[in-house]
Every structure is written in C-alpha cells, then in structure tokens.
Design a protein that fits this description.
This protein is an alpha/beta fold and 237 residues long. The chain has six helices and eleven strands.
Length: 237
C-alpha cells in the first residue's frame, strides 16, 4: 500500500473501484488510510484530506490518550479483562488438557508445562470465544426481531482495525473477539450498529436516525468503548 505525504501528514492511499472517497483513522496509533476511486485525481484527494485534517487530528489525539495494556506474557499476576472488569491471571501447570475457569477475582488457567506464551494465549482466547458465543446469539435474536432484519451469517474473529463489520449485500456480520473484554453494553452497541447496516449501508443521516431510534444512548456506549484500554498488540491492516 503506497504511502503518500500531504504536508506533515502521511497516509496509506488505496485506489479502488468505488464511487466515493473514504478516510479512516485506525488504532492503535492513529494511522490514516484513504480509499479513493481510481479515477479521482491526486489534487482532489489532497483537497479532501486537507478538509478533514482537523477531524483526523482529533481522532489521532483520542488514540494517543487511550491507555494501553502492557505486552501479555501469559503469566500469573497479569490483569486480563472480561466484560469490562479486570481479573488477575493464575497459571497452574498440570499434566492434562488445558482449561480456563473464572474463580472469584481470578482467571485460573491450567496448562501443560511445555506450553509457551503463544499456546497459553490461544487457550485463553478459546475460552473468551466460548463466552462470547454464549452471549452473542441472544443479542442477535433480540435485535434482529426488533429491527426486522436477518443476518445470513454471524461470526467471531479477532480484527485489527474494526470492532465489527457487515456486508449488506451478503448480510454477513463479523464481531471482534476483543469485545468480550469490554462492558456488555459495548457489545450491544456494535451488534446494533452492524445490523443497522442491513437497513442503511452508509454512515449517513438515515443511519444515525436509525441508531437514535433503536439505541438512543448509543453515543454513550461508543464513548465508553473508545475510552477502554487498547490491546497491547500492534494493530495493522
């Protein structure tokens, strides 16, 4: 992806077969991505970026202000999150199949002695996935009924730049696994957000109107999500 400099701002420029130009400021460090129609001139792209420069700087400042977790070593004493609450990790070495359980204020992870950091993280993420898979279907059923829409597919995966995604044409929705670490209302906000895209593809006035109708306090949930600690890993795209 080519890097283009506009004054003091460097952006990743993508030219695609699309009708409109899109500017995104991405976590965790506020990198700027510009997706532009193939036919759009460099001058027009530059002017569009300059017009949004104040907004871009505001978004970058928000990312810089967000707390960040330290790099995870998957050892006892670390703090890991579930539904917005921090729990201490307790790693127990056992000669049997790995498992994770919530016990009071602790996340107790039993793993074989030979498991390294990556394997321990995989075990923990599988546990997180199981918890999210239990809660997500109920939320989807509730809001699909309320909004009179139906997703053809709902999946969970770790995404590096989005909390959720929706393809309105195929009605396929993905939810970021990291949401299991955030307060429950943040997950609900993302579910509603993605389902609204089945009514309205763009983030326009109609989209905002639908969000206001279905989830009047969605801005509070979005603000809470934006203030939560970012994952330690270096997000890319």
């Amino acid at each position: 992806m080519p890097l283009v400099t506009f004054g003091e701002l460097t952006v990743d420029l993508q030219r695609k077969k699309i009708k409109n130009l899109h500017i995104s400021v991405l976590p965790p460090d506020g990198r700027v991505r510009v997706s532009a129609p193939i036919s759009l001139s460099d001058t027009a792209i530059r002017m569009a970026v300059v017009r949004r420069l104040v907004w871009i700087r505001q978004q970058q400042a928000q990312f810089q202000a967000q707390p960040r977790q330290s790099e995870r070593e998957m050892c006892s004493g670390e703090t890991h999150y579930l539904w917005g609450r921090g729990y201490r990790l307790d790693v127990v070495l056992v000669d049997r199949t790995a498992e994770v359980k919530l016990n009071g204020g602790w996340i107790r992870m039993k793993v074989p002695p030979h498991y390294d950091t990556v394997q321990r993280e995989t075990v923990l993420n599988q546990w997180y996935r199981g918890i999210l898979k239990q809660r997500l279907p109920k939320l989807m059923a509730k809001w699909q009924t309320e909004m009179k829409v139906e997703a053809s597919f709902v999946g969970i995966k770790r995404m590096k730049t989005k909390w959720g995604s929706c393809n309105p044409q195929s009605s396929r929705i993905w939810i970021n696994l990291e949401l299991v670490k955030k307060p429950p209302e943040c997950l609900e906000f993302i579910v509603v957000h993605e389902l609204v895209h089945l009514h309205e593809r763009k983030h326009n006035e109609r989209f905002i109107g639908l969000m206001n109708m279905y989830l009047p306090n969605w801005r509070e949930h979005r603000a809470k999500l934006n203030k939560m600690p970012l994952a330690y890993n270096h997000w890319g795209y």
